[in-house]
Amino acid sequence: MRGVAMATRRVKSPYGRGVVDGLPFIFVVAPFALLFGVVATEAGLSIFEALAFSVAVIAGAAQFTALALMTEHAPVIVVLASALAVNLRMAMYSAAMTPHLGHLPVWKRSLVAYFLVDQTYALGTLEFEARPSQSAADKFAYFLGTLTPICIPWYIFTFVGAWAGAAIPTNLGLDFAVPVAFLAMIGPMLRTPAHMSAAFTGAAVSLAMAWLPYNLGLIAGGIAGMVVGAQVELVTERRAARRGEAGA
Question: What is the Cα–Cα distance from 216 to 188, expressed in whole angstroms?
C-alpha cells in the first residue's frame, strides 16, 4: 500500500492517479468476474449472455444475487426486487457524487452513472475529499482513470470465465474475492457513527433474517441499515447544532 501511495504521488495527471489508485482492485475484480463467468455458464447462460449480463448490469453482488435466484426458479418479480435492493446503495453513491460531477455535460454524467460502482465510488470520494479544489474536468479524468483497471477487466474476466466454463471448478476458492473486495472498500469509509451503525445494523439484520427465502434477509438488512444510519446521522447533526448554539 505504501508503494501504491508513493506511485500515486509521482503521477501528476488526474487520469494517471486514478489508474494507479484503481490497480490494486484488479486482484479482487479478476477472480470475482472469473467466478461469475463460470457460475453463469454452469447455470445455463451462453458465453454471450454471461458477458451481456456483466455489460448491462456491471454490479457483481446484484449479478450473483439475480443468478442464484434464477437457478432457484424464483419469481421474476423477486429476482428484480432483490437485485434492485442490493443496488439501492447506488442511489446514495449518486447523491454523494452530484456535488462533484453533477454539473458536467449529459454525456459525461451518463458515463459516470454507468461506471459508478463500489470501487470507483470509494476511490472518487476519497480523492475528491483530499483534493476539493480540483476542477470538474480533473475530477472526471480521475474517475475515468479509476474505472480503467476496474470495469474493463470486469468484462474481460467475465468472458474468460464463461469461455473456460467447466474447466475452472467452482470450488477453487475464487469466491474469496467477494468479501475481500467489500471489506477493502467499506473499511476506510467507516469513519462516523452513522456509517458504523448502518454497517453493523445491516450485517446483523441480514444474518438474523438469513432463514428467509430468496435472499430476502439481505433486503431487510439493507433497509434496516439505511434507516438506522440516517437516524444516527440526524441525531448527530442535531447535537452538533445544539452545541454550536450553546457555544454562541
Answer: 28
Phi-psi region of 168 (alpha: psi -120 to 50; beta: other; left: phi over 0): beta
9 pLDDT exceeds 70? no
Written as nine digits, the cell of 174 is 475464487
Residues whose CB is less than 8 angstroms from the CB of residue 162 and which lie 6 or more positions away in sequence, other chains included: 37, 38, 40, 41, 45, 46, 47, 50, 51
d(CA 56, CA 77): 18
b (16+ CB within 10 A) / e for 75-114: eeebbebbbebbbebbeebbeebeebbeebeeebbebbee
DSSP state of 192: S
What is the model's pLDDT at position 101? 93
pLDDT, tens digit, for every residue of 160-215? 989 987 566 656 655 555 565 556 556 666 777 877 888 889 889 888 988 887 76
pLDDT confidence of residue 1: 46
Q: How far apart are CA 81 and CA 66, in angstroms?
A: 9
3-state secondary structure of 210: coil
Q: Are the C-beta atoms of 4 and 23 separated by less than 8 Å? A: yes
User: Is the pLDDT confidence value at 145 over 70?
Assistant: yes
Residues in the chain: 248
Residue 26 burial (CB count, 10 A): 17
For 190, the 3-state DSSP assignment is coil
Q: What is the pTM of this model?
A: 0.70
- pLDDT single digits (tens) 194-206: 778 888 898 898 8
Distance in angstroms (rounded) separating the CA atoms of residues 248 and 244? 6
- Are the C-beta atoms of 18 and 148 separated by less than 8 Å? yes
